[in-house]
Amino acid sequence: MTAIQNFQDGEPARAPTITEPNPRQHILVVDDDPDIRRLNTELLRHCGYQVDAAADGTAAWAAIQETKFDLMVTDHRMPGMTGIELLKKLRAARMKLPVIMVTGHYPQLEFDQNPHLQIEACLLKPYTFDDLLAVVKNVLLAHADGEPERVPPPNWMRQPSPNNLRGGDRSP
User: Fold this and answer.
1) What does the alpha-carbon distance between residue 19 and residue 49 come to, in Å, rounded to a whole number?
2) In whole angstroms, what is the distance from residue 2 CA to residue 169 CA?
3) pLDDT tens digits, residue range 111-169?
C-alpha cells in the first residue's frame, strides 16, 4: 500500500482535463453518498475511464461478480456492507482487484487485525478532483503489468502525481 494520501490543505480544485474515452480501463466507484458517488463517477468518465457505480458494498459485490474491473474506488463506512467487509469478500475469493479506499476515517484497527486486506492507497476526505485522479493514475500504472490493453488516457501526462501536490504524502 502506498502511504495514506491526506489532502486537507484547502486548495481550490482545478477543473479536470477532458479527454477521449478510454474504455479499456474499467473502474467501480462505491459510495453510499449519492453526491460523492455521482461526482467521482462523472469526473472519472470525463477523464476517459469506463465507470460503473454502486451505492453500497452489497451492490458492489454483485457488480464484481458480473463484470471485470481494473480498479475499485470505495468508501469505508457504508450501511449493509462496509468497505472493509467488501475487501474481506474480495480477498477471500482470491480476487486481485486493486482497491483505493476513499474515506473520512482510516480503518487502522481493521487493517492491523487483518494484514491480508491489502489496499493500494487510501485517500482521506476531503480531497480534490486532482487528488483522486493522481491516486487513480498511480494505482492503474502500478498494476498495468505491461499489458497493451491497459493504456493510460492521453491526459495522464498533464495530471499531477501525489508527490507534486501541495501537502504530499503523509504516513499514518
Assistant:
1) 9
2) 9
3) 788 888 889 999 999 999 999 999 999 999 998 864 433 334 434 444 444 443 434 44
Residue type for 140, please? Answer: L
CA 83 to chain centre: 12
Closest listed residue to residue 133, CA positions, set 100, 171, 86, 96? 100
Specify the pTM.
0.72
From the list 118, 140, 158, the residue with the least C-alpha distance to 27 is: 140
In angstroms, the CA 37 to CA 60 distance is 12
- For residue 87, CA distances in Å to 10, 57, 67, 143 come to 30, 9, 17, 18
Query: Residues 61, 28, 36, 159: is their CA dihedral positive or negative?
Result: positive
DSSP 166: T
Digit-coded pLDDT (tens) for 69-105: 999 999 999 998 999 999 999 999 999 999 999 988 8
Cell numbers for 142, please give them.
502500478
